[in-house]
Amino acid sequence: MDELLSLHRVNAERFSRLVHRVGPPDADAWQRPTPCTGWTVRDLVNHLTSEQLWAPELLAGRTVAEVGDRFDGDVLGADPVAAWDAAVAASLAAFAEPGALGRTVDLSRGPTAAHDYLDEMLTDLAVHGWDLARGLGVEDDIDPATVDRLLVEWSGRTDELAPGSAFAGPLDVADDADQQTRLLALFGRRA
């Protein structure tokens, strides 16, 4: 579990560094496209910020129904960087609480082990971190330990990654493709 928390923190910090590179709220970079079809940089950061806002609520035992639509729509407001910083800090703190990963959280699909929920959060931070880096035109390497973990985690679960899931369906890759290229292909991305 310590490894999972550590990788989550590494990827949250990477995503944070990228968010800080976007610039002030009126910077043109917020409107750049990303590899996520139809999503700008702002849309992508908004999605991840919303996810971070959910974590403390769910880990505190609240249900999806109790949280309701509080985190729907634009959660970035006038200062997207500050909104991200506050949301990710609260999420990291909630997952790091003693016993948090032994809990069960109420997701839209039903009760889920908190450590499985954290794996999903890690996946989103890593893959969408790559998307954000691509949208910004900066270094897009994913932490190698994260790549290794996620390849093990998701390689046998490609049915969950079919078109219509949260990510695009898996793509074929060359036999000699590197690990990051393989991981990205699982999530419908070409490195």
TrEMBL record:
Q: What GO molecular function annotations does the UniProt record carry, in alphabetical order?
A: metal ion binding
Q: Which NCBIfam families match?
A: maleylpyruvate isomerase family mycothiol-dependent enzyme, TIGR03086 family metal-binding protein
Coiled-coil spans are none
- Ranges for the Mycothiol-dependent maleylpyruvate isomerase metal-binding domain? 17-133
Query: Which Pfam families does the annotation name?
Result: MDMPI_N (PF11716)
Q: Where is the signal peptide?
A: none
Official protein name in the record: Mycothiol-dependent maleylpyruvate isomerase metal-binding domain-containing protein
Gene3D superfamilies noted in UniProt: dinb family like domain (1.20.120.450)
